[in-house]
Amino acid sequence: MTGLPSALADFGPAALSAVVVAAYLVVGEPVAGHVLHRRFEGRLRTDRDARRSFYRRLLVLEWGLAVLAFIVWLFATDVSAGAVGLRWPQEWPGWFTSILVVVVLLFVVASTRQLRAGALLEMARPTRRPGEGRHAEPPGQSTLALLPRSEEERRLFTVVGITAGICEEWLYRGFFLAVVTAVVGGAPAFVLVLVAAVAFGLAHAYQGRAGIVTTGVLGGVMAALYLDTGSLLLPVLLHALIDLRFLLVPESALPPGTEA
């Protein structure tokens, strides 16, 4: 936690903007994510370009928000680059955090296998009858809908996965935790980990309760890794790896697109 802002005054004239952006991450992002994904799922049934369009929207939104937060930080002249994780790791993560990272890696392997099994199950499932509701969809359907089906989609999804690793770690760990620390005037590491977990889980509310819990836990692990090392580098790499695991599900195991 060395170098984190000790008071909101450290942000100087950018303090209000920093608080507004941080508040949006907690309150606005869950709403925006829900609306964006519902519209995507609606378009998926009729638009062959739905996934590519969705991926592009994600890129614009994530980079736009990340750049906005970066500009706010630039105006916070008393907040150093190290205070927002923009430096090389200062030390190795502690033993407890290291164990959590290993557990996350095991989760990546297990969830990828489960995702593949879910995709195969979806392929074998009879076509939904007219009027059959979303309750009939198998678990993970929202995730399956996001998976790329073509080479072009896979290339674009690769960029999305890397972007998520960079932008979301900067937003939810580097920038957000700096603002939280400044607002409360300093906080124990476990409190920051908990806050980061809750904020990140809520940002994925469109995935349902299970998705909130899963991403919340992952967000907490990323925060612990960031606070242990003092750098965003390892969280960025781990985050990108988690998102890019979707590419390990072969195209042949996925059901064909539902779009017309």
Key phrases:
single chain, 260 residues, mainly alpha, 8 helices, 0% strand
Low-confidence stretches: 127-139
Mean pLDDT: 86
| Shape, principal axes of CA atoms | globular
Number of helices: 8
The share of residues in extended strands comes to under 5%
N to C succession of SSEs: HHHHHHHH
How widely separated are the two ends? Answer: 52 Å
Structure class: mainly alpha
The largest β sheet comes out as: none
Q: Tell me roughly what share of residues is in helical segments.
A: 55-70%
Gyration radius (Cα, Å) is 19 Å
Query: How many E strands?
Result: 0
Total domain count: 1
Structure notes:
The chain is mainly alpha-helical and 260 residues long. It has one domain (8-126, 139-253). Helix content is 67%, strand content 0%. α1 packs parallel to α6 and α2 (50-75) runs parallel beside α5.
In short:
This protein is mainly α. The chain is built from eight helices and no strands. The relative contact order is 0.19.
